[in-house]
Amino acid sequence: MDVRTERHQPDYVLFIAVLMLTGIGVVTVYSASMVYDIHQGLSPDHFAIRQLAAAILGLAALGLCTFIPYHFWYQHAPKMMLAALGLLVIVMVPGIGHRSLGATRWIGTTSVHIQPSEIALMALVIYLSYLLTRKLPILRDLRRTFRPAMVMVAVTIVLVFIEPDMGTALCIFLTAMVILFAAGVPGKPLGITFGTAVVVGFLGARMAEYRSSRLVAFFHPFQHPKSSGYQLIQGLTAIANGGLTGRGFASSISATGYLPEAYTDFIFAVFTEEWGWLGDLGLLAIFAVVIWRGFHIARYARDRFGSLLAIGLTASIIVQTLINLGAVTWLLPVTGIPLPFISYGGTDLVMNLAAMGILLSVSRETELELPEEDTLADIISVDEIRATRQDAAGQFRRSSGRAPVARLSNFRTSPFRKSDASGRGTSLKQADRPISLTWRASREAAATKRRDERSRKPGGPFRRHKR
């Protein structure tokens, strides 16, 4: 197969799926926060308008990132990582970091703020893709590849963990593991790292009282129905009330004040109550399309950096989605991770849309495989080969008076992919190489004469030699 890189239009299937998720998110935020806004003395569409503004800003970022060549991120990956780490440090400075619900995770005021941990997640995906592409020739040297990567991952996780934001730290760790695995890092160090992280994470969860209460609520929610298990029980009740077809738009009972964080972490429960299990299937189908197109783009990416970048960005969406849905449906402890594109949150929505823009940028440059038959037809036809050989033979006969023996060389029926000394793939364009007829008249004539002499001897060319 011939492989050719071609620039074309971005993946519109992915774009439409992301656009649908964003629209569903804005509508669901309005439905889930309407009663809460009224109770707070705000406009019924207060949070919905803020989510719509974040969606517009995020779509602008998506469009910008789509038409920026994705190698721009390769060139600036170290700077972006350092800037993200700087934001994680600044958020802990008194007077700068905004504290809410017992955590200091935001920079800005009460009305306008950003969450640096979301920026750090995307920056780390870009940096790991850059590092594992740059270190490809020495990938098996763990001291020079795996260790620097894990140091950066560990520093990022520690800074996020002490905010505290254990949910985002978990997302960062799992996404990094997926990128390292996809890059070809040996399984043994990955397994040791994963096991160590599980132990450290469990001990860290036991250190803080609110984390311990979440574990207790996960294992025994109905023993604490009015305290730590209240939110989970109300979320399960909302899912059960939805049934097959749901109660209808803006008809959720749980969103009227029974379910805490109805428009953020537990928005999926409100969506299920309003649209039912059939609505859930439709929503999950759209998420599946996003994941499918993400891995499709990674498979046909132009180079290793584009492939790892697409895998990392897609993995971040998968990890966030699974953790959020697992918490709402009582499969995982509650960690406070929002549902991508759906939950209320400006920084999360903008960064996810920007990530999809980078994914669309990778999709604009893919490798196309051309059939072997078409390649052969484009090179030269059989009739042209015979005509060329006859013309060359006639010219040689007229000039030397001898019948030449022609040998066709430097011709292949199809181009192939090879790797040069640097390890990077290069395409051999055989269509650009002319067919050459190499004439070795003297050697071939002598060989023909020797064959004729052997054939005239008794037994011919197949005679037996005495031992």
Put the structure in a nutshell:
The protein has 467 residues and is mainly alpha-helical.
The total beta strand count reads 9
Number of helices: 16
Shape: elongated
Q: List the uncertain runs.
A: 369-382, 405-440, 460-467
Succession of helices and strands: EHHHHEEEHHHHHHHHHEHHEEEEH
Q: What's the structural domain tally?
A: 2
Most strands sheet: 3 strands, antiparallel
Strands ordered across the widest β-sheet: 2-3-4
Rg calculated over all Cα atoms: 32 Å
Please tell me the overall pLDDT: 81
Distance between the termini: 51 Å
> Residue share in helices?
55-70%
Secondary-structure content class: mainly alpha
Give the strand content.
5-15%
Subcellular location: Cell membrane
Membrane topology: Multi-pass membrane protein
Pathway: Cell wall biogenesis; peptidoglycan biosynthesis
Transmembrane segments: 12-32, 52-73, 80-97, 117-133, 145-161, 167-183, 190-208, 275-295, 307-329, 341-362
Report on this model:
With 467 residues, the chain is mainly alpha-helical. The chain has 16 helices and nine strands. Strand 7 and strand 8 (425-427) form a beta hairpin. It folds into two domains: 2-368, no CATH class; 383-462, no CATH class. The strands form four sheets. It has a three-stranded antiparallel sheet with strand order 2-3-4, with no helix packed on it. Strands 1-5 form a two-stranded antiparallel sheet.
